Amino acid sequence: MKKAFVLSLAVLFGFVMFMGAAPAQVQAKTIFVTIGTGGITGVYYPTGGAIAKMINKKRKEYGIRATVESTGGSVFNINAVLSGDLDFGICQSDRQYQAIHGLAEWKDKGPQKDLRAVFSIHPESVTLVAADDAGIKTLADLKGKRVNIGNPGSGQRQNAIDALAAAGIDYKKDIKAESVKAAEAPGLLQDGRIDAFFYTVGHPSGAIKEATAGARKVHFVPITGPGIDKMIKDKPYYAKSFIPVKLYPNATNKENVPTFGVKATFVTSAKEPDKVVYAITKEVFDNFDSFKKLHPAYQVLTKKSMLEGLSAPIHPGAMKYYKEVGLMQ
Ligand code: GLU
């Protein structure tokens, strides 16, 4: 009797252990990865969502579950990827270059050797939006005006400082510089609390639509001139670009607006496991046509263009895929 009781207890115990262990095992297999993006009215946020969507579709196969976080932008994402707070991040190609070479925000910290490139995404233009009533037609007209150059942590902040410097404007002395996030700038412009703002972003973007859709009429200011030409020549990470005005019918410009630009890129850390980086790269590239449809800013993408603008070493997980399909030797 006693023996039978002990036996049944043992069976019961074993059964409980088995039932308890089964779901725990499934959970242990799921790898959660977080992608750092930007403000929710930018293009990084939907881009993070597009990448997460591709990999989450195959959750059963890879056991990877990707989520997206809205952040302060490029510089924040690079630092968070390197500290291990984020697995992946989207950042401007110029910021990738500066981090890997220990320039700009990384001047004191030195080269960020653990940064790894995965692929490039859409082009981004340094975009200067000004209120029509503020009398700003050129960069020089920004003198004395209240201008948002972006939060520390954003990519656009240094682009704005570079553009201003190339036009002979010291952002600390010659303008009233604001440092708010790009998502807040359109509201401030519409409320008359700033005269203009810089945003380095893909087009079309929600923030620029919002800025051009209000009662206060606004326009894009060309970022041109001999100083800008020299800067583009001197800095390997900048290239000429333009803003297609047909994307913003409420802006008062009649023609496309010349400026300079960079590329959005997808980065991670050398510490990220190869199989995770491989899986994400494979899903985005194998399903390239569906990926391209996820945002109008991806219209110009080709598989080849997605391998350009990368200055950090390519992560071995991504490289494995590129070699398999012959995109790289
Ligand atoms: N280029 C911006 C930055 O690096 C973000 C743009 C976006 O969110 O689309 O901060």
Task: Describe the fold and architecture.
The protein has 2 domains: about 30-125 and about 265-325, D-Maltodextrin-Binding Protein, domain 2 (3-Layer(aba) Sandwich), CATH 3.40.190.10; about 125-260, D-Maltodextrin-Binding Protein, domain 2 (3-Layer(aba) Sandwich). Helix 6 crosses helix 9 and helix 10 (about 275-285) crosses helix 12 (about 315-325). By secondary structure, it is of the alpha/beta class. It is built from 12 helices and 10 strands. Glutamic acid binds near residues 43, 124, 155, 200 and 201.
Q: Short description, anyone?
A:
The protein is an alpha/beta fold and 329 residues long. It has helices spanning 2-29, 44-56, 59-62, 74-83, 93-101, 156-166, 185-190, 206-212, 226-234, 274-286, 288-292, 316-324, and strands spanning 31-36, 64-69, 88-92, 115-131, 146-148, 176-178, 196-201, 218-220, 239-243, 257-269.
Percent of residues in beta strands? 15-25%
Order of helices and strands: HEHHEHEHEEHEHEHEHEEHHH
Determine the fraction of residues in helical runs and give it as a percent range: 25-40%
Question: What would you call the shape?
Answer: globular
CATH fold field value of the largest domain: D-Maltodextrin-Binding Protein, domain 2
Bound molecules: glutamic acid
Q: Which stretches of 5+ consecutive residues score pLDDT under 50?
A: 9-27
Q: How much is the average pLDDT?
A: 93
How many separate domains make up the residues? 2
The helix tally amounts to 12
Instruction: Please count the beta strands (DSSP E, at least 2 residues each).
Output: 10
